[in-house]
Amino acid sequence: MASFTQTYPAGVPPRRARPRSGAGGEFTIAGAIVGLLLSERLEGGLLGGVLGHAIDPKRGVALSLETSVRNHLTSQGALLVELYRHGPYRVEILFAYAGQYWTIESTAPPASDWTQENLDDWLFGDLMDHQLPSRLRAFVGGPDS
Amino acid sequence: MKAVLGALERLAQAVADVYEATRSDDKTTLQNAIALNEAARRFGSDPTTPEVVVFADLNRFKAVNDQWGHAAGDATLHQVGELIRAVIVGGCDARAFRKSGDEFVILLKQTMLPVFYSKLETFRECTTPFDGNVTTVSVSFGLCAPDGEPADFQVLLDRAERACLLAKAQGGGKCVVWDPAIEAAGIITLRTRCPGCNSTVSADIPSGSVPASGLLALCPVCGTSLDCEGAC
């Protein structure tokens, strides 16, 4: 995973962006699916996967917000149970840690020039670096960034 | 060549992950309704290990959703799923699925029935610590075993669900085994006002099945026992 600095709308406080995938992999899967659809044969899927892998530019691609949150929580010994999107700017997550269930939520400041990418980056950083530690401050040694 | 093999390995893993994801429940760590349908198609195909169908339903789940919100309901479902996985799947070598909402289906080897019965008390009160509070539900079970005829899964499931209605009338952690008398009794719909929370309650009850205690059902909102006097 590679670190990545995101640019946010003016006036929005900085937040850590989602991790970027180093080797891609989406091209391989997409190629396999296209190959399967076109040929309707397993061999076509395999060939499509190989071709997709061959043209993969290997640029860092952000994982989805849910996968990023899930991976981060897992690395802290917690388990993501659900991620709820309440409109474009607000996300709530339900997670389990130390035999208990907790919710935290994050609301991005409204701005006209958010993109889905930098919005999800901001929500990830806010959830993991700000909301999670404050929610679990009562836990000594809890999942903290 | 090495790159091609690597790509093939990743592709095979991706396909396996997608297959697994389509059969995994999104709210618990059990299997989902798609996996249940597949299991139903194969049900009874191995006569050396006959299975029974168990239908499980949560009590007071609506009250949790109403009082604490959808996230508390999801946490409760997840917690009960973990309990089923540990106690029944792990402890009784069974397969468990979330069918929909707060309904679960368990496929249990007949030889494991004594072990299953010994675990029921675990489900009389299931607590879930949630955001500093504690939600409480219980689980009732209905069970139906094949009767020698070629096993029709849907028939067994319907019978187990009907037996579960009776179990719910007896409270949490109870299991009722289907028998023809339950089928013959038919179902009546109880409509009454809960003396505990004043909610209007509607519940399906197998008729002619009022136990000695007179208990008919639990209020889905507050869990108050609705007795025969209240229903009548």
Salient structural properties:
heterodimer; A: 145 residues; alpha+beta; 2 domains; three-stranded antiparallel beta sheet; two-stranded antiparallel ribbon; 4 helices; globular; B: 232 residues; Alpha-Beta Plaits; six-stranded mixed beta sheet; two-stranded antiparallel sheet
Per-chain topology:
The complex is a heterodimer of chains A (145) and B (232).
Chain A: E1 20-21, H1 26-39, H2 42-55, E2 61-62, H3 65-75, E3 79-86, E4 90-97, E5 100-107, H4 116-135
Antiparallel strand pairs in A: 1-2, 3-4, 4-5
Helix pairs in contact in A: 1-2, 3-4
Chain B: H1 2-22, H2 33-42, E1 51-59, H3 61-68, H4 70-92, E2 95-100, E3 103-109, H5 113-119, E4 126-130, E5 133-144, H6 153-169, E6 175-177, H7 180-185, E7 187-193, E8 200-206, E9 215-218, E10 225-227, H8 228-231
Parallel strand pairs in B: 5-6
Antiparallel strand pairs in B: 1-3, 1-5, 2-3, 4-5, 7-8, 9-10
Describe the structure.
The complex is a heterodimer of chains A (145) and B (232). Chain A starts with 19 loop residues before the first strand and ends in a 10-residue tail after the last helix. Chain A folds into two domains: 23-59, no CATH class; 64-135, no CATH class. With 145 residues, chain A is an alpha+beta fold. In chain A, strand 3 (79-86) and strand 4 form a beta hairpin. Chain A contains four helices and five strands, in the order βααβαβββα. In chain A, helix 1 packs antiparallel against helix 2 and helix 3 packs parallel to helix 4. Chain A is globular and about 55 Å long. The model of chain A has no long low-confidence stretch (mean pLDDT 84). In chain A, the strands form two sheets. In chain A, strands 3-4-5 form a three-stranded antiparallel beta sheet. A two-stranded antiparallel sheet of chain A has the order 1-2. Chain A has helices at 26-39, 42-55, 65-75, 116-135, and strands at residues 20-21, 61-62, 79-86, 90-97, 100-107. The longest helix of chain A is centred in the last third of the chain and has 20 residues, at 116-135. Chain B is of the alpha+beta class and 232 residues long. Chain B folds into two domains: 29-178, 2-Layer Sandwich (Alpha-Beta Plaits); 186-232, no CATH class. Chain B is built from eight helices and ten strands. In chain B, strands 1, 2, 3, 4, 5 and 6 form a six-stranded mixed beta sheet that branches. In chain B, strands 7-8 form a two-stranded antiparallel sheet. A two-stranded antiparallel ribbon of chain B has the order 9-10. In chain B, helix 3 (61-68) runs antiparallel to helix 4 (70-92). The model of chain B has no long low-confidence stretch (mean pLDDT 86). Classes of the chains: A alpha+beta (145), B alpha+beta (232). The A-B interface holds A 25, 28-29, 32, 45-46, 49-50, 53-54, 81-82, 84, 92, 94, 96, 99-103 and B 3-4, 7-8, 10-11, 14-15, 27, 70-72, 74-75, 78-79, 128-131.
